[in-house]
Amino acid sequence: MRKIGTKEIEYIAMGSTVLGTGGGGDPYIGKLLVKQAMKTYGEVNLIAAEELKDNALVVPIAAFGAPMILVEKLFSGNEFTKAFEMMEEYLGKKIDAVMPAEAGGLNGVIPFAVATQKNIPIVDADGMGRAFPRLEMVTFTLHNIPVSPIAQADEKGNRNIYHTIDNVWGETLVGATTIQMGGSCAIGCYPMSGAQVKKAAVHGIVSYAQKLGEAILDAKDKNRSPLDSLIQEAAAIKLFTGKISNVTIKTEGRWNKGICEILGLDENQGSRMELDFQNEFLMAKKDGLPVAITPDLIVLIDAENAQPITAEAVQFGTRVVVLGMKANKQWRTPEGIVLGGPQKFGYKEKFSPIEELNKN
């Protein structure tokens, strides 16, 4: 157990943007909500999954919606607390700890606001080790943990409780209602025991996000390149250096879909890269050939300051570096590849580990 305050939140927010792989929503607004809550209620205890009692009740709290809409339609902050309280009321039990559903983007920080208000710890774990666009795409699904009951609340005061026949139907029904709510909402989902968290979650991911953030934000104080520092901390592969030449993006339902085109510079002069995204960057192709494929992570970095760039914030002319990172081992199992791999998103390419695609 250790304390997390506003300084640590700065690092975690930055690292969560890296793990968001272009999606997950910009954590800036979430960071402001958390900092304001911490000023009122104090710091938060971060605990390891192993510290949970087996019979503890743990609930992931998350923002749900299209990342582009999350930027334009601000949260009040109360909807996350309401989703938490709805879950407690429905289950008739006190929630012992919260955790991120995903450690990427906005959802890497939002649970801290609820944890400080309710004076409960947050678990150093999540269900992805990155961001994914669909509710069923979590390691909890791989362990047959149901998404239901799902508590849903928006900033207007609308509230729903769902019981769905499986986790895919959870995505379908909550996703449909979210569109009617204006494209974003707060949810509580996947209520589970401490024993289930220990078995099914991606452990240590909040601490990892903090280390990634420190690698970027503290590099100059250590007379290091922020980019080199991030690459070392993340054990990342540098896939491409170039300049954004074109981006096509559209919002379909609660997904941002599009392609980011990059013209090569420096060692990649004369080459071209395409990043295909559905909220998150899912496929990176260099001169038409894949060099990184979901569920491995594809991260777009501003070459000037090593800041990660979300898909909805991509701008023409920006000099960028594309990095690849290994997915958590649970995603590299046959079951994990079915759930979070390229066929799930309609791509014809098969998954191949990033280190295999970049041997030379």
TrEMBL record:
It comes from the Bacteria. Residues 8-162 form the S-Me-THD N-terminal domain. Residues 166-354 form the S-Me-THD-like C-terminal domain. SUPFAM superfamilies: CV3147-like (SSF160991). Transmembrane segments: none annotated. Gene3D superfamilies: CV3147-like, CV3147-like domain. This is DUF917 domain-containing protein.
